[in-house]
Amino acid sequence: MAIIDITIVPIGKDTGMSEEVAEIEKVLNKYTDKIDVQLTPMSTLIEGDIKDLLAVIEEIHEVPFTRGAQRVSTNIRIDDRRDKEGKQMKRKIESVQNKM
What we know:
Elements: E1 2-10, H1 18-29, E2 36-39, E3 44-48, H2 50-66, E4 72-80, H3 89-99
Antiparallel strand pairs: 1-3, 1-4, 2-3
């Protein structure tokens, strides 16, 4: 199970990005049967099988272009852990909370 931290930034548009983020979240919500999504103030976390995640990334990278952007910068950070089964986002948070 992999976790991807992704930030998609249309370049050359307004400084506000909430409309683009909302459209990206709508696309992500179509895949909740395959991936888990967690919106944060600075990025979005998606968790699932790496093949599903990469396919979703390709689709959401296109969203700003469909809204008129001429250039898009997408930053991706992947944590692909294969020594443990199951969902990791929740487990990682619980692990830290248990130590507090």
